Amino acid sequence: MASRYPSSLWIRLPLFMLFLEVAFILIFSFLFSYDYDLENLPKGHNIYAEFQDVNVMVILGFAFLLAFLKRFGFSATGFSLLLAALSVQWTMIVNEFLFHFSDGNVKISLQRITEAVMSTAAVMISTGAVLGKVNLMQLIWMAWVEATLFAVNRWVAVSVLQIGSYTSLMHVHLFGAYFGVMVSWALCRPLPDSRAENEKSTPVSDTFAMLGTLFLWMFWPSFNAVLIASTEKKLTALFNTYLGMAASAVAAFSISVATNRNGKLTMAHIRNATLAGGVALGFSASTLRYPWIAMIVGLGAGATSVLGFVFLKKCLERAVRLHDTCGVQYTFGLPSLLGGIVHIVWIAIDSRENLSVGGYSALIEGGALCLSMALGLTGGLLTGFSLRLKLWKEPHATNYFDDQAYWGFPHLAVGY
Amino acid sequence: MASRYPSSLWIRLPLFMLFLEVAFILIFSFLFSYDYDLENLPKGHNIYAEFQDVNVMVILGFAFLLAFLKRFGFSATGFSLLLAALSVQWTMIVNEFLFHFSDGNVKISLQRITEAVMSTAAVMISTGAVLGKVNLMQLIWMAWVEATLFAVNRWVAVSVLQIGSYTSLMHVHLFGAYFGVMVSWALCRPLPDSRAENEKSTPVSDTFAMLGTLFLWMFWPSFNAVLIASTEKKLTALFNTYLGMAASAVAAFSISVATNRNGKLTMAHIRNATLAGGVALGFSASTLRYPWIAMIVGLGAGATSVLGFVFLKKCLERAVRLHDTCGVQYTFGLPSLLGGIVHIVWIAIDSRENLSVGGYSALIEGGALCLSMALGLTGGLLTGFSLRLKLWKEPHATNYFDDQAYWGFPHLAVGY
Amino acid sequence: MASRYPSSLWIRLPLFMLFLEVAFILIFSFLFSYDYDLENLPKGHNIYAEFQDVNVMVILGFAFLLAFLKRFGFSATGFSLLLAALSVQWTMIVNEFLFHFSDGNVKISLQRITEAVMSTAAVMISTGAVLGKVNLMQLIWMAWVEATLFAVNRWVAVSVLQIGSYTSLMHVHLFGAYFGVMVSWALCRPLPDSRAENEKSTPVSDTFAMLGTLFLWMFWPSFNAVLIASTEKKLTALFNTYLGMAASAVAAFSISVATNRNGKLTMAHIRNATLAGGVALGFSASTLRYPWIAMIVGLGAGATSVLGFVFLKKCLERAVRLHDTCGVQYTFGLPSLLGGIVHIVWIAIDSRENLSVGGYSALIEGGALCLSMALGLTGGLLTGFSLRLKLWKEPHATNYFDDQAYWGFPHLAVGY
């Protein structure tokens, strides 16, 4: 096997990782110390259970959601853990610099760790788009650039456009999806037919992925509500997301059967589209005052997601050579876009007694959406091109979707 | 494959699902709006972590508990998610109509969503009894009827018999098990020998099922305590359930070895009977004032469950053609019956200083138990007969326990 | 099959288990009743979510961490559940006798159950060292002795050496690892070559183990903080552990690649060494006042763990016939030792203004560390020798690492 899977990253990769970690430790040593603001303590402490829900989503949910490939389960779960560990640390640093350095309020709190963990979802989503086609070193570089850019994106949205810090975090799905899609496009190689076999799933790998889906599905209400301070708004976000997820699951099953000529379900749709409701409700979960609107948004998002998988995926693969391993555009991209539009329309409708204020808010939110989209697309494109440098020792297309390129097996693995 | 697995549900099934979801949205739009009763907020908010434990049990625990069949993992996990999503919404609607419509207190709260999620356990349990023998459309119809009937059952118990709302929820195991068993019996077909191969498990599918078991085992204390308002009673329920589960696990291992002539363990016993303690303690977890009683109940429930699997299962299959895929009668039915009897006896003993009150309470609780049993049995029987209508395009027995009847596979699946 | 896997434990094992459970119930009936100290209630109640995190770690995390062997998944998950159920009950009893019997404050509280669950981690860790080489009866005996000894160890540390109750619990990793390693050594048999095939993992069993790892990784902050009363110290412990785990994951990936001549990752390192940071921070998570120190400790622990796996494991297997199935010495033993030394050094440094107090504290902590090490080693050695008694019907080496020796399979299992 040694000849087919070259040991090219031997020294380079560990040095790169250790360099990053040592740099993080140095920056932490200059930047952070524990200095508890006693008034903030009780609140920070109370959100710990919800923080853990979000942590489970980002560390375990996404890792297993990506574990659907036949021979790429080690990389999906292992690389996700590493990328999350690096991204959370780096995001904490960048966030402190951008948001709190000027006011001297540099500290570690549960809220700020939660923000960093939620931001890391962008990296996980992008990883889904390029899964199996890049090596670990390229992933780390992508994660580093993306975490930085998403923090900058949030900073512009919050400081310049004056949108809420919580809403700015909810751009994570849109940003992550389009960033990942563009990286994948910029990296595009004619994929050989030989990789086709490895790009499939097996019943076992699909069941592992379903486990990831279920954790994401169950804890999505926590994701959309964890950082909301007002109890009333928080409960609204929890209920809306819960009901939207339920409607989204029904839509995913319905449309998946309806679009299959044999009237059968497709696991890839169920695994992904059931989550679209939570994605779409990210922006507006706390503001929609009627549960039925949340349910309609969930239903629409689930349907959009499946339709994207069925009609758009193959189309884009052929037309513009856009290969998106997990279909993150349909799970996260389109539903988030839909949710953003609903959010803007709702703001405009909701403030009908004060048209100018509502119109201005809607405009600002629309601007933030365009900003995330633009920064995601261009950032992803540039990152994708940067990943084609010889430096990264890009894997050969014959090694795509294959754990054996990155993991030593005691004996030849035969897939699941 | 197209000839063997007919596409008969192509239009019918998605229209049915979408019709239900649209109906739910319409009813929600007339019935519910968020109108927070500020005094109730803190309490509702505090139970969120425990609500998520219960949510994990119902969404993930049951789904994976049912995933033990060799070739039915997609259906077990996927259908469970869909049924839960539909049942929770419908149960919320029915509960509001039955319990709160008269007093105009129609609202969404964490407590009411928790009640709906707990009620949904009945649907999950019944699904276990008919698993693999009915199609998704039949399951949805069954879930709809069962969720309605269980809500009616609770309403009668609470309004007419005046038993506690919390106790009435604990009938969910008994009701679900006997409803499912009767549906399965009413549907009975001579099962062909060819299905025998598919009704087995593999080490991998059993390990997935064990994952479901562990989540149910760990979070059962939350299930038995989440809705109890008094802190003292809540802690009693948590401790009693925890200790009862431990005793139940020991009983399951002991009796499983003792009843095997080779002195070996049977995975089906361990997967199921370890949970019997939690089921049996549902009724009395908060009232038993001595931990050792809870432990004896757990020990007895675990032993009953394994003995049921060993001696009753084959017997009933042959004698009355009662086929119970998961053995829900032994995991949920008998232990719940045992727990109900303990509950009644304990009430009678505990109020020995006031015999007439105790006797009356015991009588009422016994009546509620009989009501659940009767409604479960007759409801299940009628539902089972209604599922034999041509309308549902019942699967042919050769397709039993086979994902390929409902799921499209990119290539021929070969099981785990 | 009957000839190869003898039914020798048929009557003996169930009687042994039932005897223990009945004895526990009797002791509970004399010892415990629920008598709520009302002032302690709110606090006890608030830690429930964190208690469940720890419960998930001990019941599910360790069970799946041990499920990495090709043909030993049932035993790994099933036996763990049984051992945990027995150990928690027994530890509660011993703890009450040792710590609370004299002051008459014998009661059940969430805090004491949490202590018992955390103590049970020692049994889980030791099980990892002997996994596949002993039968269930031997495991139960080992668990019983170990739970007793660890409680005695804590009692000596708390009562005689006057170290904190919380710190004494953190010796669980060190004690468990060296106890298990010595049991394994005392039991040593020349392992036949035939067992080599069964001692391997498959991609599926490794993915199940990765699931266990992720749960341990995510919830480790709860483990290191759940019983700390001061909010400030609790948050410090949470943050330090979170950051230490992240650094530990980066170290595990880096050193795993660096020590592989093909530049590839080894799943066994990732599964285990990513957890070393949490282990090492057990002692000092709440006292380290700078996050970068926690990160350095995590980095060092992760590196130590991988280096132990790479250089020490084979060496010890050959030189002293020390066979450690899971490598618990490298995951828990060495990192815990490292953490203990850091803890002592930090105490000495931190109290530099008052050298005598600091020196004394450091001396005491060092004494406690030596005590755990000594008691773990000698206890393990004696327990290991006691396990060689004919009484236990030790499995023949040809049955090592094979579920079929303990579990009935409906048909011949072919592994994953």
TrEMBL record, chains A, B, C:
It is found in: Membrane. Its main location: membrane. Pfam families: Ammonium_transp. GO terms for biological process: ammonium homeostasis. It is a multi-pass membrane protein. It comes from the Eukaryota. InterPro entries: Ammonium/urea_transptr, NH4_transpt_AmtB-like_dom, RhesusRHD. SUPFAM superfamilies: Ammonium transporter. GO terms for molecular function: ammonium channel activity. The chain crosses the membrane at residues 12-34, 54-69, 81-101, 139-157, 169-188, 208-229, 235-258, 292-312, 332-349, 361-385. One of its GO terms (cellular component) is plasma membrane. Residues 28-394 form the Ammonium transporter AmtB-like domain. PANTHER family: AMMONIUM TRANSPORTER, BLOOD GROUP RH(CE) POLYPEPTIDE-RELATED. Belongs to the ammonium transporter (TC 2.A.49) family. Rh subfamily. This is RH-like protein. The lineage of its organism: Eukaryota, Metazoa, Chordata, Craniata, Vertebrata.
